[in-house]
Write a structure and sequence with these properties.
Elements (H helix, E strand, L loop, with lengths): L20 H14 L8 H22 L6 H9 L7 H19 L7 H12 L37 H13 L7 H15 L6 H16 L12 H5 L2 H12 L3 H23 L4 H18 L5 H13 L16 H13 L3 E3 L7 E3 L7 H10 L8
Antiparallel strand pairs: 1-2
Helix pairs in contact: 1-11, 2-4, 4-5, 4-8, 5-8, 6-7, 7-8, 7-11, 10-11, 12-13, 12-15
Length: about 375
């Protein structure tokens, strides 16, 4: 690796040629952005997946920075929350909390210094400072010393210019340009944030949340029926991520266009992959049934519970009368008792407020392990354990 050095280049839009792969990607992603996702998966089922993918996104972002917590280990901490969280778990929990903060506030909050500072405070909260941990002595404050980036030939700008470059970045993302430039701006802004390296520590985690916030603000959000997992773009192959960042560091149009193509291709692939879960036939066959079988084999659930859950997944929405043939010797009150028991164990949830129709619930300590296992086997996990 050549010696690291600082090379200035303007923050600017770059224009792909009309016949390029990048232009094709922009067109396809614009189609996905404007197309409201409509599938056969019930909303009460589909939206449970959002929380699971928030978890996977958070694990992936932490793993890029060297956190070696496996998905299985983190899932166990979500199942058993009686123990205090060690630092590696706290780091992931912080990212999850920041994602929820973005979801809650992004519609009414501009992406500016105050917003990014709040995100940074959240992701380093309660963590020791390097080299002992992944915290920051000055949460939410721009760095006041010069730094180097490991695995990079780029040296970030002098500490005295950080505020200037960050204001330029916020102006860049918030200025009104043609909609065709929105996705390019997201990719370019991600690189520029890393190029500036505004905080002493936590820049990687913060920039991925910054990118997530821009995508949600742009319309790729779960309220429109879509689940996002953008960190998967960067964490499936960390070496490729750093390689593409280094190409963009050169500041040439060619290098920046290559970076944009890398980011947008990854985004398109991830969106299309996760959108498959809106097809209930696919979700039922490839994820939910294997989940129930896994939980039954491990004796997390009983035979009777498995029967009911399989019937629920077969029909997607059930009421008590749909179970009569499964338990012909039981009276209606006994079947209702079985349903109440599954609701108490968080394996069923009413279809709506006050309704006596039910859908499966899988964010619980009986089914969650199986859901993660099934998602992993079908290639939905952003990191490989």
């Amino acid at each position: 690796m050549s010696e690291a050095r600082f090379e200035y280049h303007n923050l600017r839009l770059v224009e792909p040629s009309f016949s390029s792969k990048l232009t094709d990607l922009i067109i396809e992603l614009e189609h996905l952005r404007k197309k409201r996702l409509s599938g056969t998966t019930h909303a009460r089922v589909f939206f449970q997946l959002k929380d699971i993918f928030h978890t996977l996104e958070s694990i992936g972002s932490a793993r890029i920075e060297g956190n070696n917590t496996t998905i299985a280990e983190y899932i166990e901490t979500k199942i058993d929350q009686t123990q205090p969280s060690p630092p590696n778990i706290k780091e992931i929990q912080n990212i999850e909390e920041a994602m929820s903060f973005i979801e809650e506030h992004i519609d009414t909050t501009p992406i500016n210094r105050i917003f990014i500072s709040e995100i940074h405070k959240m992701i380093v909260n309660g963590l020791k400072y390097p080299p002992e941990g992944e915290g920051d002595k000055t949460p939410g404050e721009y760095r006041t010393k010069n730094v180097k980036i490991s695995r990079s030939t780029h040296t970030p700008p002098d500490m005295s210019t950080v505020n200037q470059f960050m204001e330029e970045l916020f102006n860049f993302i918030n200025q009104q340009d043609s909609a065709k430039h929105d996705l390019l701006k997201i990719a370019l802004a991600h690189h520029r944030f890393v190029w500036i390296h505004p905080f002493i520590n936590g820049n990687g985690r913060t920039v991925r949340l910054f990118t997530y916030a821009m995508l949600v603000k742009l319309g790729f959000n779960v309220s429109a029926g879509r689940i996002l997992n953008p960190t998967a773009i960067f964490c499936n192959d960390r070496d490729n991520y750093y390689h593409n960042l280094s190409i963009a560091d050169k500041g040439t149009d060619e290098g920046l266009l290559m970076w944009c193509e890398y980011v947008l291709k990854g985004l398109k692939d991830e969106i299309e992959k996760i959108d498959k879960l809106a097809d209930y036939e696919y979700l039922h066959k490839e994820i939910l049934l294997p989940t129930i079988n896994h939980s039954l084999e491990r004796k997390y659930i009983t035979e009777s519970e498995a029967k009911i859950l399989k019937r629920v997944t077969d029909k997607q929405v059930i009421q008590a009368s749909d179970l009569n043939d499964l338990f012909p010797s039981k009276v209606n009150s006994e079947i209702s008792r079985q349903i109440r028991k599954l609701i108490e164990k968080k394996m069923l949830i009413p279809e709506g407020e006050g309704k006596r129709k039910y859908v499966i619930r899988f964010d619980n300590n009986y089914l969650l392990r199986g859901v993660i296992k099934s998602l992993g086997e079908k290639g939905f996990l952003p990191v490989k354990d």
